[in-house]
Amino acid sequence: MGCTEPVAVALACAKAKELIDFNYIKKAEVYVSPNIYKNGLSVGIPNTNEVGLHIAAALGFIGGKSEKELQVLDGIQEKDVVLANELLESGKLTLGIKDTKEKIYVEVNFVSDQGSSKSIIKGKHNRFTYLERNQEVLLEEKECIGKAKDDMNLLYTLKINDIIKEIEKIPYEEIAFMMEGIEMNEKIAMEGLKQKRGMGVGFSLYENMKKGMLSDDLMNYAMMITAAASDARMSGMSMSVMSSNGSGNNGLTAILPIVAYKNKFHVEKERLARALAISHIMNSYIKYYIGRLSAICGCGVAAATGASVAIVWLMGANDKQIEGTIKNMIANVSGMICDGAKVGCALKLATSAATAVQSAILALNNNIVPAKNGIVADTAEETIKNLGTLSQEGMSITDHVILKVMKNMQAS
């Protein structure tokens, strides 16, 4: 519930608070990675009319319950928001950027009248790697040393078409839970179409469809519902979504273009569940190479590629056409940057969803970007690795520049 980065901050704060009994707060220091800071700076917080990491952190201390994990802000009431703002006004809570190469990192140092505690989330938004109460270490996850990256992640060394063939064999009951994502994410999309929320991208597209300015075809419909869901989520609407690879907006992008296809064409539940599984796995596959939080928009290049592959699979594509869909996507949207989570993300999700449909249709008609066309290689796997090189090496400074620009605007 809510954008994943401020929710991770709220979760770490809630856990630190729960580690020790106290009557009042003396001091609370929160440190986050540059990527967490960038992604949480301008996004709406559920159950409030406010944005940003500071209020999320304060709410974690005041009303957050860590057992809810990434739904930690579920149940926050108006009185909690008042108390959270009082905590911020007191100056006892500070939030700064940690000098770390970790993409996902939240550290909380909490001091109360009854003692102190510390919590650290690292690697994944709900993964605690360190907990401490009154200098006693309760949890310390050691770094895994001596194993090669690929040894621990066999999945990402496999051929994509081989992975899809394995997904086709999985018993339906083992992936039936994927259908929950359709229910959750379509529900928030429909809320975004009822009235203008955030930028109102999806709502505006819907209004223009009704006027006849836009056709109600698969591409526009996918664009509309994906944007509408982002409008609602980024404005802080208190509804849960199914995430994908640690990102709620990735979940919207990985699922909703498939929902659009389902709403336009009849698809059996079992086949729909497999399409969703393909989309999530493709998102994970690409994000393994570009990084969980990167300077490249994960929705555009990873989640939307997953949706595109799933759609072309539903259309009956062969192995070459599935590979071609990936090449078409990366040739098109690889330059989309991530400049933080915010209401404007609805525009990027709209573009990503439309491109997902476009790439699938082109590949199905054997219109595929040729090898050695920019970063597009002979195979889909090599193309994804090239995208990873672009992200990890070529854009290593880009995140710092984006953050610098955003901080300068906040200060002015």
TrEMBL record:
Matches recorded under InterPro entries: Ser_deHydtase-like_asu, UPF0597
Species: Crassaminicella indica
Ranges of residues in domain Serine dehydratase-like alpha subunit: 140-404
Protein name, per record: UPF0597 protein KVH43_09300
Any GO molecular function: L-serine ammonia-lyase activity
Lineage of producing organism: Bacteria, Bacillati, Bacillota, Clostridia, Eubacteriales
Keyword annotations of the record: Lyase
Domain of life: Bacteria
Family of the protein in this entry: Belongs to the UPF0597 family.
